[in-house]
Design goal:
Layout (H helix, E strand, L loop, with lengths): L27 H26 L4 H5 L3 H9 L7 E2 L2 H11 L8 H23 L11 H23 L9 H11 L6 H20 L5 H16 L29 H29 L6 H17 L6 E2 L1 H9 L6 H16 L1 H4 L4 H15 L2 H10 L1 H16 L2 H21 L4 E6 L3 E5 L11 E5 L9 H14 L6 E5 L8 H16 L3 E5 L3 H9 L2 H5 L4 E2 L2 H11 L1
Parallel strand pairs: 5-6, 6-7, 7-8
Antiparallel strand pairs: 1-2, 3-4, 3-5
Length: about 575
């Protein structure tokens, strides 16, 4: 029986149904099972994310309705699951807590406006092809950022797990306060319940990973809370969960509040862009599919617009939910539409049972979410393999924990840019020498090796721009100074130079003049067309001479021998 062909995608600037069509009949049952499994895990998780964000738990369910459906219809990825996410929820909470009372209508409206603004940024990023911004949030800082978010989220849930009030915003001080002042106020049944739930989720997910333990814990504790009347025994429950669909309306906030929200919306935009792109790219590669980040930006932008218009908060591509859908057999956004249908049934008919859920259970679920965000293996690998990058990740994590998620993401972006500049500012450059019958070898600058007596071929391993032009010039002059025998030609191998800015161009002009004073001819090779155009525009081709710009390293050596 012939195998079914892999789906072929045709995506324009604004894709539609790319994540669903074509539908393979044999895959439909698996997508339905994956959608049911995803709903079982995602429903309690998004309720936890709503708690992190500071909005009523029902708003977490709203993120699995219109936003998830919109991405399924307009996103490009067949696998990415878009819903509430811990990183953006924590970012939102730390920014809005100073502007309105968490859980209040004003706070919810502000959260909705942030989603609208973030959605607008994502759509603009697609229109103006700004998806490369995601590349400035490196894996290194993402490990540190998510680890910091995980620690902050986990520590922030401990007061409610112990049945005491949360005091202040610093998670470390909250823990100290619990164990120095509030032990007498703790409810023993609440503590036992939290520890039991924690044990079931952590042990269950370790030994039977495919079982939706969180879902079973929620169902079990709801039944126990109702049957044993735990509220009368001092265990707080989440209370009334509104039934029905979310109201669709523009967030009602004063217009003068919008400038205050631009910063947090931009930070959410960066996190959504980076985390969703990494997740979508990983699953496209896993299944041998084409990755279209621009198409996903449209889906993500419209999903956040849908979130804002349906009164909920920012949504993001979720790595954990995407993995659940994928490992459960889901291979298209049809699985996510099944999840939307299940959430719709819950909102219409099953919100009354949810009201019996103990708050400590929800706090414990959020605690486990935070624990899973802490990437100890990633931090250990960085320490073992890239100690400098470990320091960057560690600083990011500490900033998130002690300063806040918003400043943590700003620091993460700054550190990523610094890391990029560090690599391009101080590239590892070489001198090239020919090995008989084996091509050209890279040798250290300190060796002073010459390709032929009086000829040095210098390989510069980065673009030439304002930050490294001084290093470029000083390295070359140092090689010239220490050359033995004295040089007649100095060749720059430009195979790694793909762009030269104004400062770099002027550095080349000055270098040519300095070498000419010393009787040394400046030549170049491996100059790509774009760089050649820049040299022509800056009149450097006329200065250096077309006869001194060669296609290959071997051409330089041959021309030098003829010129002797």
């Amino acid at each position: 029986m012939p195998a079914e062909e892999e789906p072929t995608k045709k995506t324009g600037p604004f894709p539609f149904l790319s994540g669903i069509l074509p539908i393979r009949k044999s895959q439909v049952p698996l997508d339905i099972i994956a959608g049911i499994t995803l709903a079982a895990l995602a429903i309690p998780q998004v309720m936890g994310y709503a708690k992190i964000a500071g909005v009523p738990v029902v708003y977490g369910l709203y993120t699995l309705l219109l936003p998830l459906a919109v991405f399924a219809l307009f996103g490009n990825s067949r696998h990415l699951v878009v819903a509430a996410d811990s990183a953006t929820a924590a970012l939102l909470a730390t920014a809005l807590v100073t502007m309105a009372l968490p859980g209040s209508p004003g706070y919810v409206a502000l959260a909705g406006m942030v989603a609208l603004l973030a959605g607008g940024f994502l759509i603009l990023a697609r229109i103006f092809r700004l998806s490369f911004i995601a590349d400035f949030l490196s894996r290194t800082v993402l490990i540190g950022f998510l680890t910091g978010v995980g620690i902050q989220v986990a520590l922030g849930q401990i007061p409610e797990m112990f049945g005491v009030l949360k005091e202040g915003d610093n998670p470390i001080l909250q823990i100290i306060t619990i164990f120095t002042k509030e032990i007498p106020q703790m409810n023993g049944l609440t503590i036992v319940l939290s520890l039991l739930v924690l044990f079931i989720i952590l042990c269950g997910s370790r030994y039977l990973k495919k079982v939706p333990w969180t879902f079973f814990v929620v169902i079990g504790t709801i039944i126990a809370s109702w049957a044993l009347n735990l509220e009368a025994r001092g265990v707080e429950i989440i209370g009334t969960v509104p039934a029905g669909l979310p109201p669709v309306a523009f967030p009602a906030i004063p217009l003068d509040k919008i400038p205050d929200l631009l910063g947090v919306a931009a930070a959410c935009f960066i996190v959504i862009l980076a985390q969703s792109a990494l997740t979508s790219r990983a699953y496209a590669m896993r299944h041998g599919e084409k990755f279209d980040e621009g198409g996903d930006l449209v889906g993500l932008g419209l999903s956040n617009v849908a979130a804002g218009m349906s009164g909920t908060f920012v949504v993001n591509g979720s790595p954990t939910m995407t993995e659940v859908a994928d490992t459960s057999g889901g291979k298209s956004q049809l699985a996510q539409l099944v999840t939307v249908g299940i959430v719709l049934v819950v909102l219409l008919f099953l919100t009354v049972p949810l009201s019996f859920l103990p708050g400590a259970v929800l706090a414990t679920i959020v605690f486990t979410i935070g624990i899973h965000l802490i990437d100890l293996n990633g931090m250990k690998e960085l320490l073992d393999r890239r100690p400098v990058e470990f320091v960057v990740a560690f600083i990011t994590a500490v900033a998130v924990i002690f300063v806040g998620v918003r400043w943590g993401i700003i620091l993460a972006i700054v550190l990523s840019i610094i890391a990029h500049l560090r690599h391009s500012y101080k590239p590892l450059n070489f001198l090239l020498v020919e090995a008989p019958h084996r091509g050209w070898l890279f040798t250290p600058l300190e060796s002073g090796n010459q390709a032929a007596p009086g000829l040095v071929i210098y390989q510069f391993a980065a673009n030439l721009y304002y930050a490294n032009e001084a290093r470029f010039t000083s390295e070359i002059l140092e090689v010239v100074k220490n050359a033995s025998p004295s040089l007649k030609w100095f060749c720059i191998s430009a195979s790694s130079i793909h762009d030269i800015d104004f400062s770099g161009s002027e550095a080349l002009r000055q270098l040519h003049g300095e070498l000419k004073k010393q009787g040394i001819t400046l030549v170049m090779c491996y100059v790509e067309p774009h760089v050649m155009h820049q040299l022509e525009r800056d009149k450097l081709v006329d200065l250096i001479g077309k006869e001194h710009i060669f296609a290959f390293t071997k051409d330089v050596a041959v021309a030098y021998e003829k010129n002797l």
